[in-house]
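Hi team,

As requested, here is the filled-out complex form for the adenosine monophosphate run. I kept the field names the same as last time so the parser does not choke. Let me know if anything looks off before we queue the next batch.

— J.
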Amino acid sequence: MTDDIKGGLSSLTNYEELDEDVDDLHLSNTDHIHVDEHSHVPTNLHHASFNSLSLKPELIRAIDDNGFEQPSEVQLQTIPAALLGCDIICQAKSGMGKTAVFVLSVLHLLEIEETPKIRCLVLCHTRELAYQIQQEFNRFKKHFVNKSTGESLIKTKVVLGGTSITKDKKALQSDVPHIVIGTPGRTLDLIRSQSLNLDHIKYFIIDECDKVLGPHSSDMRNDIQTIFYKLPRNKQVMMFSATLDDEVRNICKYFMHNPREIIIDEGKKLRLDGLQQYCVKLPENKKNEKLINILDMVDFNQVFIFVSSVTRANTLNGILNDEGFPTIVTHSGLSTEERIERFKKFKHGSEARIMVSTDLFQRGMDFKSVNVVINYDMAKDEDTYLHRVGRAGRFGTKGLAISFITTAEDEKNLQLVRSKFVVPVDEMPESIDKTTYR
Ligand code: AMP
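And here is what came back:
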């Protein structure tokens, strides 16, 4: 369990109370899409373009500005369903462009009104992810501007726990946004104090939905349920994640009407194309020496190092700093402002090329320059492993993941990972060919 998200199965909810129309739910409507091994595009859709999705011209321009040449398969399969107004559960592996699916869909569907109303609410489990999603909305909305004043026609607001709620209240009152992105607790506080009006919501989105609705997230799940009750009946619900087991998928469905399920590569073993994965078996007291040796040896742009607790994160960060490595550390023990500040610094790569982090930072975070992930402390299960190593090798780029295996528990988790991925996780060789991960 991470330091950040505690909870258990004890407060399981009676989901049947969530919505009177639950009986209408169908479990069909599922698309399983299998993709070409070396590309993100399904074999029969290699020549599809963003133009074929009939998005608004302002979006096509922004897509172009951002250098997206072709939609990924998750985008090709999910955006059309989203534009048709379907409720959606989408599972696709990390780094394949899921964020752009809902960002582009909402920006396309949003009617631009003279008097803004909150039309879209996006929830996710960490402050950094909420901030990152806001940045994605901002970069794709940039051509929706008032031609005479140059003012942006679409406003976004991020609401995060650990920041001044008074400021949030004032901002929501004085400058009503169209799109709110938030963590569940702060969003609920603002709703309860009537600062966040949900009466006009048309789009309700949950990113990394298994993280907020799953069995280890009872607090967030309760918050989300309370928020859900307050939303208008007539709305579109979309949920996304890289990992969704049947239990969570069924929970998601209780929030939806006849959802379209889009599952990329389901039923097959998950692959992380382009990612070289190795393990190193060693005792605890040799980890620091080995880590330093690896950092000296590998050719990295930016590195993520995952550890199992806040204390270990701080200690390891200190050790690496003393060794002269440009590191930065983040975890739940820091204030929100500090976390966002460190996130920005690392994202822009200006000061630190190595990030030491707890699992707080694994999910959904997109850092283009990260090509190496090191599990200094092995992931506690195969899904956590997937989310951690998915920080490297994003959107078809190459990457390297190295896991330290120390305890019997680590060994067990390594076996789970090996059984889940097609690619092998071999013992790390003396030297690694740079071209395999750069
Ligand atoms: P995500 O899985 O949403 O975190 O996206 C992973 C990365 O892929 C982000 O840096 C996106 O900006 C990038 N990306 C998403 N869609 C595309 C696309 N169609 N072409 C190129 N890059 C993309």
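Two things worth flagging: The first strand starts at residue 30 and ends at 33. Confidence is low (pLDDT under 50) at residues 1-28, 35-46.

Thanks,
J.
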